[in-house]
Amino acid sequence: MSSAAGLVTPQARKRGAGAYPRRACALLLCASVMLAWGGCATGGRTNLWPIYFHENRLVSEGGKQKALSATEAIYPLFERRSDGETSWHAVRPLYNAQTGPGDRFQVQYLWPLGLYFRRGKMETHSRLFPLWGYHNAWRRSAGKKSLHVHLLQLIRFGRDARYGPYFAVFPLGGVTHNVIAQTWSFALFPLFSHYRAGDYARNDIIWPFLSYGASPDGRQTTYRFWPFYVHKRRDIKSGLYVRTDMLWPFVRWGLLDRGGNYYHTVHAYIPFYTSIKTWDRQERLVAASISILTFNRAWDSRENKGRVGWSTLFSCVRKLNGPRFYEFRIFPFYWRTSRYATNEKDPQKCWTRWRVLWPLVWIDRDTRLPWVSKKGLVIAPFYWDHTRQIRAKGEPVRRGRSITFWPLATWEKTPDGERHFWIPSHGWSDPGQGYKRNYRALLELFQYHHRSDGQRETRLLWRLYHHRRGPNGRYLSIMSLFTYDSTAEVVGEPGSYVSLLFGLIKKSWTKKRSRWRVFFIPIGPKLEGSPDE
Length: 533
Known about the structure:
Elements: H1 10-39, E1 41-42, E2 45-48, E3 52-61, E4 64-73, E5 78-82, E6 87-91, E7 95-100, E8 104-109, E9 114-119, E10 123-128, E11 132-139, E12 144-151, E13 155-160, E14 164-169, E15 173-177, E16 183-187, E17 192-197, E18 200-205, E19 210-214, E20 220-225, E21 229-236, E22 239-246, E23 251-257, E24 262-269, E25 273-280, E26 285-292, E27 295-300, E28 308-312, E29 317-322, E30 325-330, E31 334-340, E32 350-356, E33 361-366, E34 372-379, E35 383-390, E36 398-405, E37 409-413, E38 419-423, H2 433-443, E39 446-450, E40 456-460, E41 465-470, E42 473-478, E43 482-485, E44 496-500, E45 505-509, E46 514-518, E47 521-523
């Protein structure tokens, strides 16, 4: 007796079993496309959270409006934004890429380790620390391009626009240009190396123990038999510099001339006696700092300096006083530093920092500028509070403040009146661009923004709950299961709508008429300009 089942081979059964998952995937893909482009597409917005989200809207920045395009897929893993001038996208946590004006292109990957930057044909820079680095730039003065490449900081090669090609393998040997000096060559470093900068050349043997260097005119010389004897002399445009060390660092004497109206002499016999004196061009002593064992006495009679003070216990206890300066500390228990804008030491025009149990507590006050004052309180590493007050002539006072409870939350109010709140905290100060784009979206559980144009935005769990409201209307989405939108800035949106279950049930209306849609089938009169048609 035969049957239909008996005619089905094992191979056919295997193919048939595999067809069901493929058909299910195909149906799911079709349903997703229908929901995205038919159910949730409204004007400038397509919402199928968290699989796909796209919108075009107007935002206000610095009193100006600009068109912003935002696209998110499997958020927060993929994001793209564009404002007409610059555009960037991020594949978190791997990288973000940005294009901008001037044919600029930048990629930050595995931040802060990796970077690629290109500025047209003028400059290219790339690195992946510590594996390799590459820099190619046009040198205008030489009219040529320079190329510098390093691998593991050990192999370096390239071509300098002025001095030509080079190659080096550290510590075996080679030559480099404009890396450490104008030219630096070595063999079995530190056994031997040669240093050249301008006319000055120096040879180092078993660096830093034995060195000899000089310029052809003898104005710059170096003799080193470290640590027993070191002598350096530079007689160049910036002034004369002469220093001699014996049994470094215990004995030193020399002259330091910075090319101005004063020069300095140094005599040190550590730890017993140290003297640093400042002289004017008429050989008059104008400042001095003298130390005997652990006690130091310093004074300075020059205009706008005039400091007088003392210190002991290797400066752990110190007091300094001058026309525009005051400092007193008992390290690490208490430390006060003040700098004044005038010689009268006006407390209303002063920057002061107090430190208590350094580095745990920091208190700052800054009123040196008449149009801005700043305050700060830090209880490291958990609490950071910074305020800023701006007083422009003819305008009301503007205040800004930032508070961080690390690592829980950060709250910020800008002088322009904007308010922002993040959970968890994004750090003790405004983080770098690479962190913001590559990592912050992965960590933000909650954020709130109240912008200067009156628009407020709340996002919970990467857009699971998304609420935006402002002068032009309101947008509310809860996992796209419920969506309400009355925002007028969405491109092409004629009115408002409410949708349920990814748009399976939807009502749209304008000031004149309304219409329902059930399972993507319109019911009622057509709305002029509606994207449903």
